[in-house]
Request: fold
Amino acid sequence: MKRLRFEFEVVTPMFIGGASPNGEAEIRPPSIKGLLRWWFRALGGSKEWEARLFGATGENGSKSPFKLVVRKTISGSWRFNRNVYHRFEKRGRCNDPRVKINGIVYAGYSLTLGDNDRKAIPPNTKFSVYCIPTLAITAKKFDSIVAILSVIGYLGGLGTRWRRGFGSLQLSGGNYFKDIRARTPEDWIKEFQKLWQNVNTKMREFRGKTFAGVWHMSKLYVWRRTFPSWEEALNEIATVMQEFRQCRNPDHDQVFNLLRHNRPLRQAPKRTAFGMPLTFRFRNVRGVATFQPANHERMASPLIFHIAKLQNGSYLPMLIKLKGRFLEANERIFIKEKNTYVSKPGHLLDGQDGDTILKDFIEEAISPLTEEVSLWIE
Reply:
């Protein structure tokens, strides 16, 4: 088996730490391999096959049967300047006119929070990843790595805030796949569906009774319109989410009354399904309320923003939706400042039980703007 070369293009700024969090951004092979593991799990791979493909430690540990190489150092020092994006600011859905909405600032809020001064690899940067097989790898194993890298080339991202659209990647060539040729949202969907059928077929070999991950691919929502810049595309999708979440009841009033009048909550706000920790703060109330999982430091969002770049230079936003359980079966949610626990507002994150806010978000805010693509795992 020959080595494969995948050429990628950075579509949106990639905040990926080098030697220090605030140092120069740098793409390194361990980051790519970690991304491969994440997508292997999201595509329904089993625990057993994860160990065989990516290596494992312990008595029965083994080395990975392939190597990833980034031929030259890819670095950057692009900075996220909130002031540049004032043009996207608009009045929000709250009654208070001082509370504004700004999608792109919302998507990148943590990049300059506190002592953060993250650096990024700028858009339009291209780099090559070489996948080098060892003698221990089989053709089927190698095919699975190729399949995962191809999905990353359509939907993947790297670095801080990649789930909120920063660090979006896409294929731009190589010795196995061509670059993305689509010029319209319809063409992009056709290209992706053809790829997805092939990937799903190859991944069947690597599924079993025990999934390596707790969340799996569910749906993809592709915008029906494109935008002239990555900033406008990212601002569009982030604004949709920010508007839906802002001042939304009953969450808003219940947490307001908790802080203002010390009225206890029966369960955590529905918005915790978007990811935690989640902090509420109000202009007219002292203190904050931070909600986080009782058994974990955080819960990542099951909703992922991605920005694709089409052949005509336009940018296409899309939303990836994962499905799975809402924390562990009996896990509660901790209110940090109150030192108390409340029940979670649901059990599943795919909306099938009707008790999470995600179903409403998709139906009310996303579906009217997008085309739905099924990502059902066979």
Summary: The two ends are 28 Å apart (CA to CA). The longest strand covers residues 315-324. The chain has a mean pLDDT of 90.
